[in-house]
Write a structure and sequence with these properties.
With 304 residues, the chain is of the alpha+beta class. The chain is built from twelve helices and eight strands. The chain binds glutamic acid.
């Protein structure tokens, strides 16, 4: 009989004992001060049973993981018109690359690279009266947790060094694919990235992607077709130029963030989140990737 708790405990011990933990992202100054030794893994199975090991209740900066949530909200508001503004192909490029954007006339390759998420942010800024407050409310309602909030010091920190994101937004604007002004859109984008959540809060939120769009309270947030599309985008585009490697080693749709978090889902089975702040050369959590590879290998559970 499969015992998730034993597997998670073994993963946590292995992670704590691994010397080579990767490098903390320092291009956002506020992220540079996180303790590299933090490690947490939380898994919520389809029945809503939570398994956890390590630092799973400590909040961290979830960064690009939020791109899945802004995509969900924008997709719900705009429907298939969304795909006129952003494509659904893997980029094969680092998260902040600009060259494809120039070649492809300001239509980002997918919503999970920075350029794509900036277009999604623009859509939310256009559609919502109070975008930052309404997006926060959306996440809180899926997680059923009103304590989730933005770390404004991280947002300000990124604003002061977000030169590539300003460049991307200006390039997109020059091609006419940004309706609002660059500063307003990026203010929203930097705040979404600065959401602070724990592994436990993240599994509660991403449970909808493993549970056909329904949260733990049994409310339907997205329909089956939307869930299929978003999970497909996570599988093909969730790890920048390491999406192939993640599918190859882990075999689940997922999304990483430079704060060191990774979420992964096995539809109709479970949702899992890891947090380890050290990143590999591709900007994905080094130990998180190893942990998820061990989870799907030891449990024999992956979508393949
Ligand atoms: N806020 C980060 C950026 O725009 C997100 C990158 C990530 O988490 O991968 O650079």
């Amino acid at each position: 009989m499969l015992n998730f708790q034993n597997i998670l405990d073994a993963i946590s011990v292995q992670a704590k004992n691994t010397q080579e933990k990767g490098k903390i992202a320092s291009y956002i100054p506020q992220l540079a001060c996180i303790d590299k030794n933090k490690f947490g893994i939380a898994l919520l199975d389809k029945n809503g049973t939570l398994f956890r090991a390590g630092d799973t209740s400590e909040q961290f900066s979830v960064q690009s993981i939020t791109k899945v949530l802004t995509l969900s909200m924008a997709f719900d508001l705009l429907g298939d018109d969304l795909w006129k503004r952003v494509d659904v192909e893997p980029s094969g490029d680092p998260f902040n690359h600009l060259s494809l954007l120039e070649q492809e006339n300001g239509k980002p390759r997918n919503p999970l690279i920075n350029a794509g998420a900036i277009v999604i942010a623009d859509i939310l800024v256009s559609k919502l009266k109070n975008p930052k407050a309404e997006f926060l409310e959306y996440v809180r309602s899926i997680a059923n947790d009103s304590s989730i909030t933005y770390d404004t010091s991280v947002a300000e920190s990124e604003k002061s060094t977000g030169f590539r994101n300003f460049a991307a937004a200006n390039l997109i604007k020059s091609f006419g694919n940004l309706e609002n002004d660059v500063d307003t859109v990026l203010d929203f984008y930097f705040h979404q990235c600065a959401l602070s959540m724990s592994c436990e809060q993240l599994v509660n939120t991403f449970y909808i992607f493993a549970n056909r769009g329904k949260c733990l309270q049994n409310n339907q947030h997205l329909n089956l077709s939307q869930i299929k599309r978003i999970n497909a985008i996570m599988l093909s585009c969730g790890f920048y130029d390491e999406a192939g490697e993640f599918a190859f080693r882990v075999g689940l749709p997922g999304k990483s963030g430079v704060g060191g978090g990774i979420v992964a889902v096995f539809p109709d089975n479970f949702c899992v989140v890891t947090w380890s702040p050290g990143l590999n050369e591709k900007g994905n959590s080094k130990l998180g990737l190893q942990a998820l590879e061990k989870l799907t290998t030891d449990s024999g559970l992956s979508i393949f």
